[in-house]
Amino acid sequence: MADRIERVEVLVASPTRNYVTLRVTTADGIVGLGDATVNGRELSVASYLRDHVAPLLIGVDPNRIEDTWQYLYRGVYWRRGPVTMAAIGAVDMALWDILGKRTNQPVYQLLGGRVRDGIPYYSHAFGWDIPALLDSVREHQERGETFIRVQSGVPGLDKVYGVSKDPNYEPAGRGARPSEEHFDPGAYMRHLPKVLTAVRELVGPDVKLLHDAHHRLTPIQGARLAKSVEEFDLFWLEDVTPAEDQDAFRLVRNASTTPLAVGEVFNTIWDCQRLIEERLIDYVRTAVVHAGGISHSRKIFALAEVHGVKAGPHGPSDVSPIALAASIHMAAATHNWGVQEYMGYPALVHEAFPHAWSASDGMLQPGDAPGLGVDIDEDILSTSPYVPAYLPTARTLDGAVLDW
Ligand code: EZ4
Ligand code: CO
């Protein structure tokens, strides 16, 4: 007889930062976990799941993964958006986790099995000035990493995305309101080539360098930046301009051969359909959690495969170790995977979510535990209550709001 979903719980906790975790338990006693964290909007997803999704899942056959996805997406009339899609994503992850545990197979095996021996990751080197950045790059190289994201301070600016004066960088700040920072696109655009000159000189030609412009530029500024950094042979230039207007990327594309990555804020295939079909980007950055889980992300990456675009998913600290596991399992089984972002987590996060996946020598491994291979430490989660925290807001020097 088919199994049935018996209990659906939403756990909101803040072991160093906020995470929303979905726990689905079946009548057979199988437990599946999903991540539903949307940075700065955690309580909205928790309510969406608790108030509107959990009651619909009780009694459902957990083996019907695709049908449940369609029911929660198409069956609900209101669709898309980060809150809805992260909620669906968490359910989807939990159901794949349950299927893996039921059949005693890791999720990557259910997705078709391994296509690579390990999944290369990149993590974040940063420095307030160029010497500090070079030290940070050296540390990443010493850990065996060959893909490195580089971010640096900009002369004249107090705060810059991707950089902190502390050894650890976490973009969301605790407090009831977002902090504010000012940004000067001109100063940034003039400074970046100097930064990349120094980094390329240090690492030589083989290291893959990445950089995130974080949506700050207009399309023509983005085009100019992509052109001006061409000689540094970036692996990718990320979020060079906001992509609600997908056609804007044509301007950037036509101006340079710098590979382009975008999409961490996308939540469905329709957010990147034109970018992919018209080959305006090289890497699509949808995170499994924010793009409707494994079932929908697979479709995005399949469309990308047909058009010569690769996956390069978002993997910051706000993507929990559960969603990262889902991404690693997909990466193991998806041919057109470029690289996985892996920002890493504070020790307490690893303890709160004990996991079979591992990271060493620049490579991620899914591990062989059944399902997604991630657990939760309930003592840690129940003693770390939610704390309001938000990503910062940016303004230009004249005080107008700018995309952060
Ligand atoms: O700003 O994770 O590539 N990584 C990033 C991140 C994002 C945050 C948003 O929640 O751009 O730092
Ligand atoms: Co980014």
Assess the beta-strand content as a share of residues.
15-25%
Q: Biggest β-sheet, characterized?
A: 10 strands, mixed
| Sequence stretches where pLDDT stays below 50 over 5 or more residues | none
Q: What is the typical, i.e. mean, pLDDT?
A: 97
- Percent in helix: 25-40%
Find the structural class using helix and strand composition: alpha/beta
What is bound: which ligands? (2S,3R,4R)-2,3,4,5-tetrahydroxy-N-oxo-pentanamide, cobalt (II) ion
**What distance lies between the first and last C-alpha atoms, to the nearest angstrom?**
51 Å
Give me the number of helical elements: 13
Structure characterization notes:
The strands form 4 sheets. Strands 4, 5, 8, 9, 10, 11, 12, 13, 14 and 15 form a 10-stranded mixed β-sheet that branches. Strands 1-2-3 form a 3-stranded antiparallel β-sheet. It contains 13 helices and 18 strands. By secondary structure, it is α/β, with parallel strands linked by helices. Helix 1 crosses helix 3 and helix 3 crosses helix 10 (293-306). Cobalt (II) ion is lined by residues 212, 214, 238-239, 264.
Question: What's the quick description here?
Answer:
This protein has 404 residues and is an alpha/beta fold. The protein contains 13 helices and 18 strands.
